[in-house]
Each structure stands twice: as structure tokens, then as C-alpha cells.
Amino acid sequence: MFKLHKIFILSLFIALFSCAKDNDFEQPPTxxxxxxxxxxxxxxxxxxxxxxxxMEKAILPANVHLxxxxxxxxxxxxxxxxxxxxxxxxxxxxxxxxxxxGKVLQQIITDVVSAFPAQSYGLVLxxxxxxxxxxxxxxxxxxxxxQRSFGKEKTYEMEIxxxxxxxxxxxxxxxxxxxxxxxxxxxxxxxxxxDIIIASPTEILVAGFPYTEVAPLLFSENYAQIxxxxxxxxxSQTGILQSASIAIINxxxxxxxxxxxxxxxxxxxxxxxxxxxxDTRANTVxxxxxxxxxxxxxxxxxxxxxxxARTIIYRDYTPYFLNxxxxxxxxxxxxxxxxxxxDFLENQYKMLxxxxxxxxxxx
Length: 363
Description:
33% of the residues lie in helices and 23% in strands. It has 12 helices and 15 strands.
């Protein structure tokens, strides 16, 4: 009897010790965990390193976790690390992988949420990016590739529908440090994946967000401070570097916007020359959502503008982008306007939630 009792106590001790050892990677719940997902296995890798160095200088609040997933062209392997006490702490390493794959994105988020549970979560998507267009699509007129997807790794890109399907939870916010992502098609596709989306309807210069100032603000509920810090940085620049725009979107209002547009009589304008545009290319495809609709003959423009105002809770911009693109009519969200007939492109567009709910195919 005595020997059995000793064996039971010993077995219990081993079991408890083993559980503690297995869970060393896991952390107790915190106020917020933010993941910065850097798909930088491309020509932006040096900018990724610079931004990480800026984050290391940031003074972060207590009881939070700032995690970085970095897949960069000059790194031997992708890895997760935490910004902690002004330095990087390695968390997990991975074999080389395609980080603009939805499967990989989903796995990284799952690993972070499992290891760093929190009351709320934020996601920063950092890479190339320009909206909804299908990966590998080429513009016929200029023969230049216009990538309208998130991320770039060699010949791979992540289309917006795949991005939305890959997010395994609803975030408190998603911030795009990537060009042209405040388009209605992308925002609407992600409406159930975040309460707040922070993005730019224009391109973003390679300096990106000023992370020494922005990183602490990622753990606040005052998202306007993030946008203000971004705009303050670019408004302090001179010349061509004074180029930026930003919008904060309340995703809960997006379906109300789609419902109003579905029930409005919209006739698309034939002359788009005076409408606010966001592309710096000669063959523009992204126009300002509100300005485009104001130039359209419809019976409900007042209600549409009121709903756009409820949807965009903050917006700001410099007077010009790259010196030659005025932004004075920017509402903060763009809409795709077909430059010419293209059956493949139209069929892809019709697969988006935005088209399914509005049946708008702008020309």
C-alpha cells in the first residue's frame, strides 16, 4: 500500500512538471496582442528592417505583446519574435515558406494567438499591396504589371478573397502598411474580419508608418491617434515626400452602405476627367468613392453621402500626392472603375462580396 502511494505521488509530480514544461511557450492572457505580419521576401526587405528598428525604440505599455512575423529576402528563415524591452526576443522559427500564401498566414496567426492569448487582437499587414485585382493580372494598355492584391513574394501574390478566408478570427483592427488598400472592394471583403480597418486609398511611400510613435498606439482604443501620427509625419516632410492619405473605416457600417447603393439608381458618368483619382498611372482604375457617385446620375446621393460619413470615422491627406495628384476631394475610400471591357476581369469582380451585394460594375 505504501509503495503504491509513493508511485502515485511520483506520477503526479512528473505529470505536473511535464505540463509546466510543455506550456513554457504559452503566456498568460494580456490586454492586447498585436501581430505585425511582414511579407518582405521582396524589394522592401530593407524597409522592413528599418521599421523593426523603429519599433524597438518605442515605449510600449505594460501587459501587451507586440509580435513580428518576418519573412525577408535577406533572412535565412522566417520567424516570429517579440519586441520586448527595446530588443527582439526570438519566439519561433519556420522552414522557408511562401508568406503570401493564405495557409501560411492562417498558421502564423493561429500560432501567435495560441502562444500569446489576449482580451483583444490587432493585425498589421505589411508588404506590397494595391487592392482587389487578381494576382498576376497585367494592364493591357501599358504592359505594366498592376498588382492589386496583398503581398509579393517572387511571382506569388495573395488575392483579397484568399486573405479574408485565411483570417481565423475577427480582429479589433487591421492596419494595412501597404499601398492602395482603402478600396471599397477590399474593405467590404474584410468587413467580418475586423471592427476597424486603417488603410490608405493612395500609395504609401517606402518610409511607411513611423513605428516609434505608432507602435504604442496600436494598444489603444483611440485609433485616430494612429492616423494622426502617420499624417503628422508626412505633413512635416517637404517636396515630393509630403505625400500621404489615410482613412479609418467602421466595418459595421459597410453593409448599410451596400444596401443603399443596391437600392439607388446609379448611372455611371462618361466623363471621368474631373473625378478624384488615386492612381498615379496614366490609365486610372481607382477613383474616389463619394466623388464618383456624386458625378453619377442617381436618386439617393444625400443618403449615400450620409452613410459614407458614418462609415469613414476619420480621414486625412496631404494636399498632393507625389506633387501632381491633388487630393482635395478625397473621402478616404476608392472604388474600382473598369478602364475597358475585359471579360476575365469582370468575372473576377463579380465574385467579390461587394458586387454580389450591390451589383455595381462601374465603368
